[in-house]
Amino acid sequence: MKTLANPLHVSRFVQVHDEAAAQKGIKISVGFDFRRYVSITEATPTKTRTYPNFRPDRSPIETGDGFWILGLDKNNDVATVQAARLYDLSSSNFAEHLESLKAFYADPTVHAHPQDRCICIAPSAKKITGKVAYHGDLWVRRDFRGQGVPRIMQGIARGVSFAMWSPDFLCGLMSRWLLDKWIVTKYGYSHYEPGGSILRLVEENIVEEEWINWLTGDELRRLVNRHDRNELLLEF
Length: 236
Prior knowledge:
This protein has 236 residues and is α+β, with helices and mostly antiparallel strands. It is 32% helix and 28% strand.
């Protein structure tokens, strides 16, 4: 049986990241209504369209199975967003979930185009099973880039994911150029592997080839349970 998340440890972990955001002039909030999230992201200039796995019209998310993070600047304009959802892969794995297109559509037979494809050749993706927290749709406005905002958002998302789900794995997909710049390590992921998703979604106009990155549940627990507040602050 897993140990329950310690609310005090989680609150401290999230608070450090929330304070780091505030120091950069960003006010953070967390929401659960993905219809509202999509309305916000669609009205946000320069942000690409949110992938269907976070859009209720293609992949509804039950209450308690997902959340999103919104960061507003001093003028209440959107500075950054990110989304997370829980996949129950107790009888499957992340590779199968991607290749079946169920990671993107609740019912691929209804919503997927006949030429939609996703190929996952990352060996470790087959080992990612159970309760899997998936993080994606991270966007930071240009004038806030290069300031560590993605790491702040990742920290908040990890704290909330751990508190809500205590997942077996936490994972995401990332373009190779982020790895080339070592951004993936700055995000705090312990593991990454090529061939996570070779994706084509015709009606979404998406053609991507991305790496998979992940943390195990134990690694996430150790990260959130860190007691040295000063050590966390030094990351920003």
